[in-house]
Every structure is written in structure tokens, then in C-alpha cells.
């Protein structure tokens, strides 16, 4: 579907953990939104002009609305946290390439493939829609989500789609440590990894995956969100087909990349 | 019937609205949002003789009413540009202005010569003003003699009309406009971005990996209008104005200051329909004020 900037309507918003908000928006963009993709959300504050990239955390079954789960991190997200039912919100979307579900289903030697979903902190929300889409496609997924403490937002929802494990930094829930500690502690077998989270976590996952495919979702400061400004690049191993240098655009060539193809 | 056509150096544009180099790719990305046939021209991202990787990230950050960028002129090089981007643009009924960057006079000349044989290219815009490359491009744009010489050198190697794009990071913009004119420029465009800096106080770090970046957006518009006014009154060649343009009203303001055409830059990121809305806004303004020919308002203040 063509990208567009369009006005959505807030259906509901709730605070699901300290500083973490769950926002449902009725929008035409929902009809073609998939796991791993994102939208640009605009503020009403004319001094804060650029769209805020936020991942798709869910798409309603009737493909009428999207769900965004985000952390208040500054001016824009603070404004979003005050949105209420019925409010207008301008969106740019749908942006980026999401996860290729059929590719994930075909990965590895086991039948059906076992896909390991790893989410850390505010990287958790996009993994929920992925878990849902994998389940719908009949792919076995195991989710391991990492939190700081026991404010484990969205965790219960993962159990509907996958075996679910949890790691917390303070040890208050599940394995004490990070998501990889939980994978090791529970001897979780997998054919490939899909991950979203802070850069140190993604680096560790790239190492950990070894020869197995790992698809990671990257973040970078963005301006246009549509591939025009070249602001959001990541270094690539090979010369990129579009840029003809070793740089790919996270907003359009990603945000999901095969970890072996990017230098992080 | 209102007339929005403008002519610059013998090239006639169906309306005075273009987009700012580097904010629109080669048109492909925004062709999903706007009909490129509706634009006066497409101005491409700066292209050099060879591919440039650009600067490390973060390359962009938001500032009050605008943004800073330090892309560092990443581009795929002239060959890929000619093989991929020009054929794409050939499908549209709009003028094509190719923005050229370089590190030395030789680089610019090489690109200018390469483009001389490309029919799809209507004009060249020479970026001697990008603040984000260390190798010296900025020096061409801030020194009168350098600017005049490089203009003359490029003019000697191409038959395409040449627009010199001026940097605002100078004390006297009128002098720079005159230098470009005496070097033989067919037109000038301004302003490029204003060098700025942002510090992330939480992390005690520069917001951009390059430390400094070029500021663009609505916050720089009054500076741009002033410079367009000063430059256009110092030279006889046409001026293309830009800096924070978001609406038809903004475009009219630049034209009254002396611009024959205008570019929409970073506001494309905020409103991907900004260019076509600008065209519509200009037409509405003309209707509202009973203006038959847009040329009537150029430099009217
Ligand atoms: C592809 C992608 C998907 C994302 N998905 C989510 C998500 O699902 N949930 C969530 O909570 N956050 C997500 N983020 C991070 C989110 O974009 C930032 O937290 C948000 O932009 C902060 O905006 P602000 O106005 O509150 O902060 P400010 O600091 O006031 O923002 C100033 C500027 O910096 C940009 N910026 C600040 N932090 C980031 C960041 N971490 N990444 C990119 N740009 C940033 C803003 O967009 C804005 O342009 C995602 C980022 C990317 C790139
Ligand atoms: C992300 C970005 C990239 C740019 N790249 C170029 C470029 O390659 N060549 C050039 O001459 N100007 C470049 N510019 C400058 C713009 O064309 C324009 O002169 C400037 O941004 C002011 O206009 P604005 O405020 O409408 O953006 C760039 C600007 C931005 C924001
Ligand atoms: S944000 Fe502009 S290219 Fe990605």
C-alpha cells in the first residue's frame, strides 16, 4: 500500500507500567500494517516538528486500528501520553519493512521452525505483534522478554501466542539477568532469532546467534522516515543496493535487518 | 486564468515550486505522496563524481522549530545517478535540476561534464555551501574569489544553465551573490543550512556525531527572507529562495523578497504533501488578490 500522512482517532489510552503507555488508534493505515513496521506520530507542538517513530505493537483483527506501546522519553511522547479517547492524531505510515513471516517459517532444519523472540525494555512491544502473526502462520515461537523489574508490561499477552519466559535485571521475575541468561538457563532450542531492544543487547544477540539467522530491529534518529534524507543509516557489510556505499537506511531498508548484514 | 509559469535562465517552469536538494531524494520516495508532474522542478540530492559514504550517525536531530543535519552528502556517485535516477525522472513532466557536490574544482567539473550529455537534466545547482564536509567545499562558498573562480570554471565545462547555491554562513551575502554573478552563474539559490549545534545535556554529548550540523526549517525563515532580499537586490540574475518554506504564503513572501522560484526543504519531512500544497496555496493567493501573472509579485516589496 502507498504510504500516507493521515489523521487517526484515539480509541483508548492507558498507562500499563510507570511511564509506559498503551495507545489504540483508529486509522486507515491499519489495513496494511505488519509486525516490525512502524509509524511516525506527529506532535501538535509546532516547535517539535519531526514525526516520532513508534513500532506497531498490534493490529486489530478487523484491520481498523493499530496499537502503539511507548515509553515517555521527551517532549513528543509526553504530549502523546495526554491523548484521550476521541482525540485526533496525525500519523505517517506505514513505514519500514517488517518481518518476513514466510521466510521465518522456512528457516532452519526443524519442521516447523522454532523462532526465538527476544525483546528488551521498550523493544518488547513490536515482538507482540510478531508473536501473533507467527502463531497465525502456524510457526512455533518462544518468547523471552527482558525487563528492569517486575513491572512486566505485555508479558501475559505473549503467553497467548507462544511459550513465554521472562528475565528481570533485579531478579524479581523469572531469570535474574538479561534475555540471553534466560535462554541459557531454560535451555531453549531455536532455529532463528528475532530481536528488538537496546544496542548492547542486539550486539550480544548477534554474537550468540552464531551461524543461525538473527533478525534484529534497529533504531536511529530519523527525520523523513521514508528514505529520502539519509539521516538514519546503519553500516552494512556489503555495498548497499540503493546507496552504493556501505550504508542502508533503517527507515526503509529496515528497521528489521539480518544481523549478519549489518555492522553494529 | 492565472499564470504561474516562471522562466529562469531560459528554462520555463510550470510553477515556481521545487524542493530543496537533499530533502526529496531523487523524487522516488516522495512520488508515493505527491504527483511529481505538479512540481515546477525536482531538485536532486547532491551528487559527486564518486560515491560518498557520508558522516557517522546520529546525523539528524530536532531543534526548536527546525532540525540540524550532518548527512555529509552521502550519495551513490554520478554513474548510478545517471543509470537509475535520471531514467526515473524521465517519466515525469517536470524540470530536473541536479545538485552537484565536490571536494575540489576537478570533482565539480567532472560531474558537470558527465551531465552535459544528459538531455533529462535541465539545470545544474552547484552546492558550494554544504557545511558538513570538512574537505573544503565550504571554502568555495565563503570566499568571494574562490566562488567566482569555481563558477567560471564550471561554466566553461558545461552548456547547462548553472545555479550557484549560496551558504548563509557569511557576513555579506550580497557580495557572494555578486561573485557568483561575475563568475557567470545563470542564477543563484539560497539559503543552504545555517551551521548550528545541539548538546544532549542528559548525556553530556553532542547530539550529532559531527558535532555541528546545518539548521533548516521554519525557525530560519526570517533569516532566509532577509538574505534573499539582499542577494536579489545585488544581482540581475534570478534567485531561487528557500529556508523554512511550508505553505503558499511562505512562498509568496520569498517571491516578494525577490525570489523567482522557491524550494520546500525539511518541511517535506513534516508534511509530505507540502510541495503540492504550496502550489495550491500560491494559486489561491493569486485568485484572492486578483493577480494574473505570478511574475508581477517577484521583488514587489
Ligand atoms: C523504528 C523505531 C521504532 C521505535 N519504536 C518505539 C516503540 O514502539 N516504543 C517506544 O517507546 N519507542 C520507540 N522508538 C523510540 C521513539 O521513537 C523515541 O523514544 C521517541 O521518538 C522520543 O520522542 P520524544 O519527543 O518523546 O523525545 P525527544 O527527546 O524530545 O525527541 C527529540 C527528537 O529525537 C528523536 N528521538 C528521541 N529518542 C529517540 C530514539 N530512541 N530513537 C529515535 N529517535 C529518537 C525524536 O523522534 C525527536 O525527533 C522507536 C524508534 C525507532 C527508530
Ligand atoms: C537532510 C537535509 C539534506 C540536505 N542535503 C543537501 C544537499 O545534498 N545539497 C544541498 O545543496 N543542500 C542540501 N540541503 C539544504 C536544503 O536544500 C535547503 O537549502 C535548506 O535545508 C534550507 O531549506 P529548508 O529550511 O526548507 O529545509 C539539505 C537539507 C537537509 C535538511
Ligand atoms: S529517516 Fe530519512 S532516510 Fe531514514
SSE layout and pairings?
The complex is a heterodimer of chains A (264) and B (301).
Chain A: E1 4-17, E2 20-26, E3 38-41, E4 52-55, E5 58-59, E6 65-71, H1 75-80, E7 88-95, H2 101-105, E8 114-120, H3 124-136, E9 140-147, H4 155-158, E10 163-168, E11 175-176, H5 179-185, E12 192-196, H6 199-209, E13 214-217, E14 233-235, E15 247-249, E16 256-258
Parallel strand pairs in A: 8-9, 8-12, 9-10, 10-11, 12-13
Antiparallel strand pairs in A: 1-2, 1-7, 2-6, 3-4, 3-7, 5-6, 13-16, 14-15
Chain B: E1 6-8, E2 11-13, E3 17-19, E4 41-43, E5 60-63, E6 66-69, H1 78-89, E7 95-100, H2 105-116, E8 123-127, H3 137-142, H4 144-156, E9 162-165, H5 173-182, E10 187-190, E11 194-197, E12 199-200, E13 205-206, E14 212-216, H6 221-234, E15 239-242, H7 248-257, E16 261-264, H8 267-270, H9 274-288
Parallel strand pairs in B: 3-16, 4-7, 7-8, 8-9, 9-10, 10-15, 15-16
Antiparallel strand pairs in B: 1-2, 5-6, 6-14, 11-14, 12-13
Helix pairs in contact in B: 4-5, 5-6, 6-7, 7-9
Outline the structure in words.
The complex is a heterodimer of chains A (264) and B (301). Chain A has 264 residues and is an alpha/beta fold. Chain A folds into 2 domains: 4-95, Beta Barrel (Elongation Factor Tu (Ef-tu), domain 3), CATH 2.40.30; 101-219, Rossmann fold (3-Layer(aba) Sandwich). Helix content of chain A is 17%, strand content 33%. A 7-stranded antiparallel sheet of chain A has the order 4-3-7-1-2-6-5. In chain A, α3 links the parallel β8 (114-120) and β9 (140-147). The radius of gyration of chain A is 18 Å and the shape is globular. Chain B has one domain (6-297): TIM Barrel, CATH 3.20.20. Chain B has an 8-stranded parallel sheet. A 4-stranded antiparallel sheet of chain B has the order 5-6-14-11, with no helix packed on it. At the A-B interface, loops of A face β5, β6 and α8 of B. The complex binds flavin-adenine dinucleotide, flavin mononucleotide (FMN) and FE2/S2 (inorganic) cluster. Flavin mononucleotide is lined by residues 20-23, 45-46, 69, 71, 73, 99, 127, 130, 165, 192-193, 216-217, 220, 242-245, 264-267 of chain B.
Amino acid at each position: 500500500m502507498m504510504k500516507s500522512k493521515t489523521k487517526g482517532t484515539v480509541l483508548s489510552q492507558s498507562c500499563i507500567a510507570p511511564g509506559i503507555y498503551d495507545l489504540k488508534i483508529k486509522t486507515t493505515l491499519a489495513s496494511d500494517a505488519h509486525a516490525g513496521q512502524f509509524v511516525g506520530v506527529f506532535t501538535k507542538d509546532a516547535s517539535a516538528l519531526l514525526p516520532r517513530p513508534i513500532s506497531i505493537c498490534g493490529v486489530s483483527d478487523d484491520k481498523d486500528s493499530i496499537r502503539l506501546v511507548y515509553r515517555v522519553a521527551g517532549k513528543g511522547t509526553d504530549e502523546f501520553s495526554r491523548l484521550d479517547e476521541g482525540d485526533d492524531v496525525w500519523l505517517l505510515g506505514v513505514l519500514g519493512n517488517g518481518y518476513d513471516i514466510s521466510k521465518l517459517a522456512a528457516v532452519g532444519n526443524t519442521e516447523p521452525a522454532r523462532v526465538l523472540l527476544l525483546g528488551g525494555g521498550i523493544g518488547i512491544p513490536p515482538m507482540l505483534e510478531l508473536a501473533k502473526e507467527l502463531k497465525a502462520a502456524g510457526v512455533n515461537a518462544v518468547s523471552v522478554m527482558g525487563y528492569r523489574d517486575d513491572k512486566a508490561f505485555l508479558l501475559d499477552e505473549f503467553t497467548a501466542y507462544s511459550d513465554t519466559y521472562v528475565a528481570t535485571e533485579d531478579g524479581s521475575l523469572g531469570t535474574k539477568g538479561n534475555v540471553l541468561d534466560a535462554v541459557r538457563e531454560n535451555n531453549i532450542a531455536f532455529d532463528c532469532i528475532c530481536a528488538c531492544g537496546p544496542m548492547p543487547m542486539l550486539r550480544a544477540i548477534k554474537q550468540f546467534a552464531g551461524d543461525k539467522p538473527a533478525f534484529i530491529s534497529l533504531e536511529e534518529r530519523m527525520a523523513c522516515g521514508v528514505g529520502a534524507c539519509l539521516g538514519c543509516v546503519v553500516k552494512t557489510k556489503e555495498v548497499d543496493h540503493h546507496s552504493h556505499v556501505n550504508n542502508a537506511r533503517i527507515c526503509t531498508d529496515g528497521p528489521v535487518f539480518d544481523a549478519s548484514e549489518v555492522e553494529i | 486564468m492565472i499564470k504561474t509559469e516562471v522562466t529562469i535562465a531560459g528554462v520555463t517552469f510550470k510553477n515556481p515550486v521545487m524542493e530543496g536538494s537533499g530533502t526529496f531524494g531523487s523524487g522516488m520516495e516522495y512520488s508515493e505522496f505527491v504527483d511529481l508532474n505538479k512540481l515546477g522542478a525536482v531538485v536532486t540530492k547532491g551528487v559527486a563524481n564518486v560515491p560518498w559514504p557520508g558522516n557517522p550517525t546520529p546525523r539528524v536531530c530536532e531543534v526548536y522549530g527546525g532540525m540540524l543535519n550532518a548527512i555529509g552528502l552521502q550519495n551513490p556517485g554520478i554513474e548510478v545517478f545517471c543509470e537509475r535516477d535520471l531514467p526515473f525522472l524521465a517519466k515525469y513532466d517536470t524540470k530536473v535540476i541536479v545538485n552537484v557536490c565536490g571536494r575540489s574544482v576537478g570533482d565539480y567539473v567532472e560531474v558537470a561534464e558527465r551531465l552535459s550529455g544528459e538531455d533529462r537534466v535541465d539545470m545544474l545547482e552547484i552546492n558550494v555551501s554544504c557545511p558538513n564536509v570538512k574537505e573544503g567545499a565550504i571554502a568555495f562558498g565563503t570566499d568571494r574569489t574562490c566562488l567566482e573562480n569555481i563558477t567560471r570554471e564550471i561554466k566553461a565545462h558545461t552548456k547547462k544553465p548553472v545555479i550557484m547555491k549560496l551558504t548563509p554562513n557569511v557576513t555579506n551575502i550580497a557580495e557572494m551573490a555578486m561573485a557568483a554573478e561575475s563568475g557567470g552563474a545563470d542564477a543563484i539559490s539560497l539559503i543552504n543550512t545555517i551551521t548550528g549545534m545541539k548538546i544532549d545535556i542528559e548525556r553530556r554529548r553532542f547530539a550529532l556525531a559531527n558535532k555541528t550540523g546545518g539548521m533548516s526549517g521554519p525557525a530560519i525563515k526570517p533569516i532566509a527572507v532577509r538574505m534573499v532580499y539582499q542577494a536579489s537586490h545585488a544581482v540581475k540574475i534570478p534567485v531561487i529562495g528557500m529556508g523554512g518554506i511550508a505553505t503558499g504564503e511562505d512562498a509568496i513572501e520569498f517571491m516578494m523578497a525577490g525570489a523567482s522560484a522557491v524550494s520546500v526543504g525539511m518541511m517535506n519531512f513534516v508534511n509530505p504533501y507540502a510541495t503540492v500544497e504550496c502550489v495550491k496555496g500560491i494559486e489561491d493567493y493569486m485568485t484572492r488578490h486578483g493577480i494574473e501573472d505570478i511574475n508581477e509579485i517577484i521583488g514587489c516589496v
